Amino acid sequence: MFQQAGGADMTSHDIEGTVISLELEGLVFDVLLDSVFTSHPPDWYAGIHSHGEFEVHYAVSGSGVMHAGETSFALEPQMLCLVRPKVYHLQTTESGTSMQKYCLRFSVRDSSTAASSSQLTAKDTILQILSRHDHFCARFVSKTEELLHEIRNELHKRELAYMTQVQSKLAQLLVLTFRALNQDRSEKTAALQSPVGMRRIQVMDTFFALRYAEASTPADMAQALHVSERHLNRIMKKTYGCTFKQKMTAARMEAAKLLLVNTSMTSEQISEAVGYSSPSSFHQVFKTCTAMTPRRYRIVRRENMHEGPAS
């Protein structure tokens, strides 16, 4: 760790998994920059997943569809999408097409530094923006894309004082992001996270995103985190508000919902794809979670999609 002007700390480890802390209007943002941000591969695919932090997707070229919660919407160039913690989401593209984008994740917490009246106003606005919806999109200005490219170049070149440059550009990027999202307000309270567990949450998010189709156990995750299973139970409750089994079931059900609506796979095929060896077990769990059979869910959701929003 080393200290930067303005009182913010940042880590300067490898690019993959780097967490940079910066202060903005009485709030401290712990921003995770990993390989997905720095390389933004056009065909990167993580499957249905959720995170313990906020995630912002910045589309720079191509087109795709973002599925988040129960809704889907087009993701086009110069669009950003903010997804709140614990919201399951998935990006898809048409066959033969691709999309290039940047992704970054961040948590936010109160600063220990006393804030001025103007900072308090901005702080309240930012917290209201972050707590409005499970997910929402906005158009971003061209300067946003320039900053994304500049941050990526700084991280790759690693020239003298490059982390100072990254921190400064990240602060500008967040300001432009919040300005783009500053529309409706709500009375909810934004979720606050400590930076201490950022890397741990990253491991957990990746585990559920990539291994929901496997016969994974709490022992497997505990081993990945280098903690005991008892400690894992406490971490799960604090991070996701549920047990390992409940979180794994939720991940499988969200994946199944997307496959039911967006593919022609049979219920038996989907059952196997999301980690169930018995179609009857999948059918029972799905009906318990949704109050509908897989077949009924597919019919209802597709009918709703064709009808569109009520006028």
What can you tell me about this protein's structure?
This protein is of the alpha+beta class and 311 residues long. It folds into two domains: 2-181, Jelly Rolls (Sandwich); 242-307, Arc Repressor Mutant, subunit A, CATH 1.10.10. Helix content is 45%, strand content 20%. It has helices at 35-39, 117-130, 142-157, 162-181, 198-211, 218-225, 229-240, 244-262, 267-273, 279-290, 294-307; strands at residues 2-3, 9-10, 18-24, 27-33, 54-62, 64-68, 71-75, 79-83, 89-92, 99-110, 135-139. The chain has a six-stranded antiparallel beta sheet with strand order 3-4-10-5-8-11. Strands 7-6-9 form a three-stranded antiparallel beta sheet, with no helix packed on it. Helix 3 (142-157) runs antiparallel to helix 4 (162-181) and helix 8 crosses helix 11. The chain starts with a strand and ends with a helix.
